[in-house]
Amino acid sequence: MDVKVSFKDFRNDVPPNWCPGCGDFAVLAAMQRAFANLGLRPEQVAVVSGIGCSGRISGYIHTYGFHGTHGRALALAQGLKIANRDLVVVAAGGDGDGYAIGLNHTIHAIRRNMDITYLVMDNQIYGLTKGQTSPRSAMGFQTKSTPKGSIEAPLSPLMMALAAGGTFVAQGFSSDVNQLVSIIEAGIKHRGFAFINVFSPCVTFNKVNTYDWFRERVVPVETIEGYDPHDRKLAMQKLMETDGMLTGIIYQDPDSVAYEDRIPGFRKEPLVRQPLKPSREDFEALVAEFV
Amino acid sequence: MDVKVSFKDFRNDVPPNWCPGCGDFAVLAAMQRAFANLGLRPEQVAVVSGIGCSGRISGYIHTYGFHGTHGRALALAQGLKIANRDLVVVAAGGDGDGYAIGLNHTIHAIRRNMDITYLVMDNQIYGLTKGQTSPRSAMGFQTKSTPKGSIEAPLSPLMMALAAGGTFVAQGFSSDVNQLVSIIEAGIKHRGFAFINVFSPCVTFNKVNTYDWFRERVVPVETIEGYDPHDRKLAMQKLMETDGMLTGIIYQDPDSVAYEDRIPGFRKEPLVRQPLKPSREDFEALVAEFV
Amino acid sequence: MVDQLSWKVGGQQGEGIEKPGDLFATALNRLGYYLYGYRHFSSRIKGGHTNNKIRVSTRPVRALSDDLDILVAFDQETIDLNAKELRKGGVILADARWNPRLPDGIENVRLIAVPFTAIAQEIGSALMKNMVAVGATVGLMDLPVEPFQEVVTELWGRKGTAVVEKNMQAIARGAEFVRQELGGPLEEFKLAPADGKKRLFMIGNEAIALGALTAGARFMAAYPITPASEIMEYLIKVLPKFGGTVIQTEDEIAAVTMAIGANYGGVRAFTASAGPGISLMTEAIGLAGMTETPVVIVDTQRGGPSTGLPTKQEHSDLNAAIYSTHGEIPKIVLAPSTVEECFYDMVEAFNLAEEYQVPVIVLTDLALALGKQTVEPLDYDRVEIRRGKYLGDTELPPRERLDLFKRYELTPDGISPRPIPGQKYGIHHVTGVEHNEVGRPSEGAANRKAQMDKRLRKLAHFRMKEPLRVYAPHAQPDVLFVGINSTEGVIREAIERLEREGVKANHIQIRQLHPFPADDVRPYVDAAEQVIVVEQNATAQLAHLIRLHVGAREKIHSILKYDGNPFLPKEITEQAKGLLKAKELI
Amino acid sequence: MVDQLSWKVGGQQGEGIEKPGDLFATALNRLGYYLYGYRHFSSRIKGGHTNNKIRVSTRPVRALSDDLDILVAFDQETIDLNAKELRKGGVILADARWNPRLPDGIENVRLIAVPFTAIAQEIGSALMKNMVAVGATVGLMDLPVEPFQEVVTELWGRKGTAVVEKNMQAIARGAEFVRQELGGPLEEFKLAPADGKKRLFMIGNEAIALGALTAGARFMAAYPITPASEIMEYLIKVLPKFGGTVIQTEDEIAAVTMAIGANYGGVRAFTASAGPGISLMTEAIGLAGMTETPVVIVDTQRGGPSTGLPTKQEHSDLNAAIYSTHGEIPKIVLAPSTVEECFYDMVEAFNLAEEYQVPVIVLTDLALALGKQTVEPLDYDRVEIRRGKYLGDTELPPRERLDLFKRYELTPDGISPRPIPGQKYGIHHVTGVEHNEVGRPSEGAANRKAQMDKRLRKLAHFRMKEPLRVYAPHAQPDVLFVGINSTEGVIREAIERLEREGVKANHIQIRQLHPFPADDVRPYVDAAEQVIVVEQNATAQLAHLIRLHVGAREKIHSILKYDGNPFLPKEITEQAKGLLKAKELI
Ligand SMILES: Cc1ncc(C[n+]2csc(CCOP(=O)(O)OP(=O)(O)O)c2C)c(N)n1
Ligand SMILES: Cc1ncc(C[n+]2csc(CCOP(=O)(O)OP(=O)(O)O)c2C)c(N)n1
Ligand code: SF4
Ligand code: SF4
Ligand SMILES: [Mg+2]
Ligand SMILES: [Mg+2]
């Protein structure tokens, strides 16, 4: 790399239409800084996002971007990664996107372990549709759709990710951009699927899970004596003990092998650069099987 | 109840089209015995099933039955339970049905905690479509769709259920019908969602996870000293230690409150017996809000 | 004195500009005026221009007006974007704080800078600038202040009389300022008196929800989406009083499938969504059709395709509603044209779903779903509950243990008796696989054909009571207008203008979209010299349906719009004139 | 000597009865005969009757025959269910072990009880009874044994020569037994010699898969389903050699969306499914349309609706393929009629998807997907790769940092240049929301209209090279037959018979279903006295499309079948005669 990249290289000229103070600004900034710190060039990165306030993020960053359908960012991202394994593929979306309509893809993407980084901007509510409950909303939480309080148990995304065989499970908080930057960097460097839940407060509709609320509760793993992010059982145990409020890299499998590296016959050279039409010899060999 | 019910009351005259030796026979028998043991009458029960070899179960039992679409049994079951909370609603299906296409509904149904019992007939393969990998297939497992072996981490359904806030999490095995009967009975009696994974071998397509294979590996919770099924953390820990091979009632929340009992204004009298057209007074009060 | 007038308030999204519009309209509605509103907004929470255009009239109105009499502006952008809509002599009421100015090229418009914020601050809080703006309107239109007192009390009463007082003061001060500015009332802004009758003022989504509730729906399963969410939000508030409930599901597949499950259980249940969610329901709709389970699905159409224009007007889901899902099922698609019809058609949708044991899709559009309008009193006695062959309330005769109930009995009308789970002698099986009369899977050729014929027979001659909404004064009109959903009012208004120019025009709105009421439509098409189909989409979906089912390809023309905004009367008038001139009919 | 013959083998599912059919057919194919097969099976793994009906001919055949010459039965049920299909003088070869008998009412049929099992056991294993049965056929038809040697060696060669030997012995013993039973060869079962040319023998799904691979598809994402799974299973085997891969996804939504993601990344990728899975893809298809991302989707149609008849023949997804998804997108729907066309149309599908940047749906049907047939050599040189405005291989000219690439440039033909992620000067944004030329969300009315027009312009005049497969010997035929998918052969066969009765018939098969090639179809419709549309569904979907796009409602008739079985030539012949008689054309 001749010229040093700066996070400004990842800025574009679109003013985000998020509400002032929205946690998503910090996620955007952290992504930009992480990309720069890793010395990536904008064209090497593709940000694939879902639908929601959060989903708009792919339009606010100067990289390739695909703003898909609600809940399907990871399916798009995995298809893209298979097509071009040289790309840095980052998927992002809201907690409704990733844990309600898209939860199935989230869990199966974790199992599959492609070399993708996935950020869930978890504000424990539906922002874009104006304040309904999300699978992350706490019991009793009052929203437009639960005026008497939610009556469903909230999901525990990190425990779920561990149960699904996650090889990189982390949690950030919009108030701690430095930590988030380093999580994202580690996630991108991780050889496999990096799952990152980010507490990203919705200042407009969620008056309970505010910046202060989180600040009082988060437990950075660094503050836990003897915490070992390579110990899956310990990670699970601590998550249960802290009610999921751990932040930092909660678990990473140092021996993770990315899906792309397990596919039989899959080459290092990206699929997109392989020739299309098979050679005549190859074709004839294929056809011969049917005689 | 004047006449004693027998499991024969739950038999019908349709010979199951399962392969001889299929684990699903035992699940069917266990359901029939559990219903009888609980003194239920056939018309009080509705079995809602998905699509797969397993999904055919609703047609082999003499109760109300709904054989739906692939992966959506739980959505049907929940709608039905809301309509008629007096019914005993049992959902059933395969591991593809419940953990691939239907996983999102599985997890959200667990969170919601309606008083439904859900049996997954887990043969770690797709039976009906002739032997492809399932989310339960082990790494390296060879199937029609993974001739070189599966390259995705298998799901851990019980850990997942605990992470989703499950209030009743159990596992049975087709070889141990007695245990399965008692689990199903306890599940039906449980006030909330009873999640039961059943090792139900596919004798035709799965030549690895056979009856013997399971027999050598299952760890009934009764064999673990000091096991306390009310201790969620312990349950999670033991599941991790046994690689998910625990059987029995692994966790039950004794204080579980069913979703139906949390719904504001929801009556004990089933919805289906409530009058349809509101009274004139009620209607006028509603309309008055718009003047 | 005028008998109608068009008012718009605009500002930044998320700054509460809904309040003044609502307050203004509610007060006028109570005075007996007819109102018709349309909200222009974007898919974001805070920021971005939004406005609410409201038409007020002494007669029923169901369309926006071409132009604008009064524009209330909370920022310069509102003026820049909307000033060109003002008629000659129109007035802008803007906050003096940011020195409002007329954009270049805008003439014959009067800008009155009213110290919205300053007055509000004097009274106690800048937040009340909204009230000052309402007051400015009151002053301009020379309205009485009393009706506002009532609405303000309802809105802020529970915060204490002081708050009510202050708000009323803000209105009074705003009115006073404008009155002084004008010197005296301007006749062209003074509305002729209304009839004083109390009518409802509601959005289509509320009528849909109220219709469902009145029809006996006690369960809704849905996933939030614009512009359908209000249906679920209204029911979340009121259903508990009736023992019912709403579940916000994990996705639309779960939503519709739960609704099917509840209907199977005997409860009237439904879901509502817009394009993306409706597309996700495709497979489940087939299940309802195959298992003959009633279910009602509301599609509040918005701009497509894909996420498209989530906050904009369109009718591009007609084909999808009719043809979506693999294989062939009987299905009914209704399309109400007005808020009243939203209410009555929802009742009918539940009746038809149970009578025919089919999925019923109710199509509305964004303008209808969210536009707030004056509605004639809803008639409780017109609401009739018909459950067809539902046997849930019946004591069934005893039968042998394994003699299953013939849930799919081959009957002459194709509709079979329907017991529900829990009934002693009703046990049967239900499956999405082809099945025999007791619902067991069966692939036999003869059974298949019999069951398929049975299912399709159910709607072979289906016709709802009034499949069309008809305005047909002419035996041999020059032109027949055909419309769907909220185009009703704007077409009628265009017709009024065309009639003034000597054009003889009839008008039908398609209420029953599928099965297509060809026999009802044909006479109107045959009688007319030309046919103009008005719809908001790019491929003329409704016109194609008429071509397919009625024929008459040569005389069918389309007026289309697909830029996301509702039709204005003049757009239809002008395009229709062009078409009729080409045919030498004018 | 005969020049064609119909053979069927039947038994219990899961007992390996596919083997003898395959062996028999492969050997005959290598002798240069033409074959056409159809498998009758159920949605269960073990048990239940299954059979494989194979027609052998010295000329090309693409339809089942009305009757049967030889029935090989592994159980009495096979005889009971199929004996009535046998022609006068037909022969049943059944295992002597279970004392086979002719059902009541079946006459003029000869039953030969062959000790399938006994002979097999003598040789070494009852499993070889299949081979004895093949041998029995060999004896009956007086076939040479050599071609079987080759196939048997391929099948069991890796298990050692002893196994091959034993299997060959079983064949020889079976043949010998029957020859002795007959006394001497029967002319009516002896096929005229074939041309000895080596042709392919494959199912439509294999041709689809091979077509995709040859077109350059290197990624498939799919979820198992009958009758599509073989496409994925074939590619799972061969794609790794080309560096490509298949992902079995968690569901069909993920499958199609991954395929879209990969196409966005520049790789030709696709998915395949049947009804239920296709319905689940509805929303994603809209995304591909809106974002102008190429994607190919194969729908191997089966009996609908819902889970329907998963193992049966039908064409009931035409409407869904054309109209499904909310909103309006450009989309292409192709429908190959033969296994060859499956191959070439798949290649074309990938070309069109990239040239027009649209989703392309390829419809086949179960008979085509799973029926194994003789296929003329596939022409490597006919395979041409056209990527349209794909710029992935181009060095793009430098541009300013924030001057995004105009991925949605408003071009005259509506198609915009398409860079892919990773390219230095190609950065742009893609969204399912309405967007501007660089792909940023934009709701402006003018932009919306321009982008919508641009997208729809792409296919406004679309016509693939040969939108119809045409057989039109007559300038003014009495009747035009119109068909789709696997009805091609059976219609042609019906035509041959009708022509013998003096009927002048033309025949077109619709290959390009959408946009409907109205201008191509019209002349044929206009020229014909009557039009008969043959399709396997209950609502005449194809006939409706012709009515809609071509008109001529009065002369369009339908021959429909929807009992799950493919048409037989006589069914079409008889019904057509009835129709033509009513019109006094015969
Ligand atoms: C299929 C579908 N259903 C519903 C919607 C409407 N919708 C848009 S965003 C959203 C949820 C937003 O919540 P979340 O994912 O948490 O994102 P946030 O806005 O909070 O960042 C919904 C329901 C949609 N666009 N598509
Ligand atoms: C939407 C949809 N996709 C695919 C299928 C085809 N299909 C039927 S059953 C099945 C999976 C069977 O596996 P599992 O659920 O584990 O049940 P099992 O047969 O093993 O009991 C599939 C993919 C379908 N019916 N519907
Ligand atoms: S509504 Fe909430 S999530 Fe959306 S932009 Fe505003 S603060 Fe952020
Ligand atoms: S294929 Fe497997 S799961 Fe299906 S019936 Fe046979 S043994 Fe059971
Ligand atoms: Mg959110
Ligand atoms: Mg299974």
Can you give a write-up of this model?
The complex is a heterotetramer, with two copies of chain A (291 residues) and two copies of chain C (586 residues). Chain A is of the alpha/beta class and 291 residues long. Chain A has a single domain, classed as Thiamin diphosphate (ThDP)-binding fold, Pyr/PP domains (Rossmann fold), CATH 3.40.50.970. Chain A is 30% helix and 15% strand. Chain A contains nine helices and eight strands. Chain A has an eight-stranded mixed sheet with strand order 2-1-3-4-6-5-8-7, sandwiched between helices. In chain A, β7 (219-220), α8 (232-241) and β8 form a beta-alpha-beta unit. The longest helix of chain A has 14 residues, at 24-37. Chain A is globular. The N and C termini of chain A lie far apart (54 Å). The model of chain A has no long low-confidence stretch (mean pLDDT 97). Chain C has 586 residues and is an alpha/beta fold. Chain C folds into four domains: 4-198, 3-Layer(aba) Sandwich (Pyruvate-ferredoxin Oxidoreductase, domain 3); 202-382, Thiamin diphosphate (ThDP)-binding fold, Pyr/PP domains (Rossmann fold), CATH 3.40.50.970; 389-462, no CATH class; 468-582, Rossmann fold (3-Layer(aba) Sandwich). Helices cover 36% and strands 20% of the residues of chain C. In chain C, α2 (76-82) links the parallel β4 and β5. In chain C, α16 packs across α19 (569-582). The two termini of chain C are 33 Å apart. The chains are: A alpha/beta (291), C alpha/beta (586). Bound molecules: thiamine diphosphate (2 copies), iron/sulfur cluster (2 copies) and magnesium ion (MG) (2 copies). Residues 18-19, 22, 24, 53, 123, 127, 202-205 of chain A line the site of one iron/sulfur cluster.
